[in-house]
Amino acid sequence: MQVLSTLSVLAGLMSLGSCQSITKVNDFTASPTNLGMYVYVPANLKTPAPIIVAVHHCQGSAQQYSGESGLMPLASQRGFIVIFPNSKSGGGCFDVASTASLTHNGGGDSQTIANMVKHAVTK
Description:
41% of the residues lie in helices and 13% in strands. It is α+β, with helices and mostly antiparallel strands.
């Protein structure tokens, strides 16, 4: 009997997780390094909405990290937005250490991620 109860709970959690997905932001253009912007916006969004940026690991992707981070269920529970930047480099790594990544005029991944936050705030 306990096995059936456990399976029922797991099935419920799996169906909850499958309803959650990230959305590509197609109107985000302030990306000098061509990063993709994906977001998760829960139905019960707080006002003003907190924003968390979840940067994936090297050789990862926004889609992959959105599933493995566990942030979407937490965002649904707490009412915050999650931005998942997606690196388009060959190794799937973000450039956060070079001089180019730190300059406002030169772009870089750090500036692009900051632009993603600004875009989310205005939308």
